[in-house]
């Protein structure tokens, strides 16, 4: 029976001759890379959107969302963090930047933006104080955060959209394709909300910048804090971005406030000093 089966599976001579010209070679399996590969990060590395200009000397991202976290890391006392901007946003956690790659385990760990504060506290040995002088100052900081993330951020999106990548909700960003609108012509629900005219938004923005300048006054840090707080990191990110925007109606409101310009210049030096370009000696 085996002889019959073998004869049935025998290839015709012309086909055997043709296939003989293409012999089948086998090679040994490639072993996996060692866990101590040179590709493992030796120092924490933050993935950011590219700086505005002169990346050899300017390591601050042109994207205000990335700059917020750069300032947070620097002003909380973490030093010598490498930065790179050759990674596309799709390479970050959730398809967004910034992300922080830290040593440890097999090839390190990639941390999303919302976990950066916890990582910073681990780097600082678990010191959890935020720097506000009292609970009242902490409560007041929430109002200023709302002003920066609300009015000032809206002005950036409207008059200089390239300055920020945060223009969609976290829900919409996780769905592909994005969800259909909940209201309007294509929905059973009537439209709601109000569209703020550009002129009114510009007025609100000018008032917000004026309020920030008045609240800072001649203090070293916002709200009279003795050391930098998360509010200072947020304020620096917006003020720095506004000072370097090509939109005159945004930039002029800040340059008219001398104390904001001087404060941004001083804090900018502190933030820059905390980062090193990836690939350079640390």
TrEMBL record:
Database matches in InterPro entries: Glutathione-S-Trfase_C_sf, Metaxin_GST, Mito_Protein_Transport_Metaxin
UniProt superkingdom: Eukaryota
Species whose genome carries this gene: Gloeophyllum trabeum (strain ATCC 11539 / FP-39264 / Madison 617) (Brown rot fungus)
The name this protein goes by in its record: Metaxin glutathione S-transferase domain-containing protein
Occurrences of domain Metaxin glutathione S-transferase (ranges): 207-267
Lineage: Eukaryota, Fungi, Dikarya, Basidiomycota, Agaricomycotina
Pfam families (alphabetical): GST_C_6 (PF17171)
Annotated GO biological process: mitochondrion organization
GO cellular component terms, A-Z: SAM complex
């Amino acid at each position: 029976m085996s002889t019959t089966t073998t004869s049935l599976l025998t290839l015709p001579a012309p086909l055997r001759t043709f296939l003989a010209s293409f012999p089948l070679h086998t090679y040994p399996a490639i072993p996996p890379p060692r866990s101590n590969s040179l590709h493992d990060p030796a120092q924490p590395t933050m993935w950011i959107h590219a700086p505005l200009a002169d990346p050899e000397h300017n390591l601050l991202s042109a994207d205000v969302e990335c700059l917020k976290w750069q300032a947070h890391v620097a002003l909380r006392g973490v030093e010598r963090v490498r930065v790179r901007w050759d990674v596309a946003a799709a390479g970050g956690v959730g398809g967004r930047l910034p992300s922080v790659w830290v040593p440890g385990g097999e090839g390190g760990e990639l941390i999303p933006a919302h976990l950066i504060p916890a990582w910073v506290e681990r780097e600082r040995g678990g010191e959890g104080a935020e720097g506000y002088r009292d609970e009242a100052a902490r409560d007041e900081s929430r109002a200023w955060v709302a002003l920066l993330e609300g009015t000032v951020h809206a002005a950036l999106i409207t008059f200089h959209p390239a300055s920020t990548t945060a223009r969609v909700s976290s829900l919409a960003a996780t769905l592909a394709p994005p969800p259909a609108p909940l209201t309007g012509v294509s929905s059973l629900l009537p439209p709601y909300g109000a569209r703020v005219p550009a002129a009114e938004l510009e007025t609100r923005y000018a008032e917000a910048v004026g309020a920030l300048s008045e609240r800072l006054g001649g203090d070293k840090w916002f709200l009279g804090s003795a050391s930098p707080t998360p509010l200072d990191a947020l304020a620096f990110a917006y003020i720095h971005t506004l000072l370097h925007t090509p939109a005159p109606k945004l930039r002029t409101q800040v340059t008219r406030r001398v104390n904001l310009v001087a404060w941004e210049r001083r804090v900018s030096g502190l933030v820059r000093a905390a980062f090193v370009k990836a690939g350079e000696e640390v």
